[in-house]
Amino acid sequence: MTDTTGSSTGGPTGGPTGGPTGGIDPALLEIIVCPDCRGDLAVVTASGATELVCQACGLAYPVRDDIPVLLVDEARRPA
Ligand SMILES: [Zn+2]
Q: How far does residue 77's CA lie from ligand 1's centre (Å)?
């Protein structure tokens, strides 16, 4: 039995965990945007905490258990 159509497992982007995405699925990062202004989000890791910082408005969204919390109410606003 061979399944040549199976593409749900693995993938070409398999890389080491704990990389530049802070444990966040790179595919997820590709599709999520700032809920406030729809700007691109950049992963910022500091002191073990990971945030997604909007490159447009500067809001920093927390990441909990590798899950981005894209709520404006939860975001840290730039000074
Ligand atoms: Zn924004």
A: 10
> What CATH number does the domain containing 39 carry?
2.20.25
Q: What is the pLDDT of residues 53-71, one digit of tens each?
A: 999 999 999 999 889 999 9
pTM of model > 0.70: yes
Q: Give me the sheet containing 60-64, strands edge to edge.
A: 41-46, 49-54, 60-64, 67-68
How far is the centre of ligand 1, averaged over its atoms, from the C-alpha of 7 (Å)? 34
| Gap from CA of 68 to ligand 1 centroid (Å) | 14
Q: For residue 54, is it within any domain?
A: yes
State the residue range of the domain holding 34: 26-74
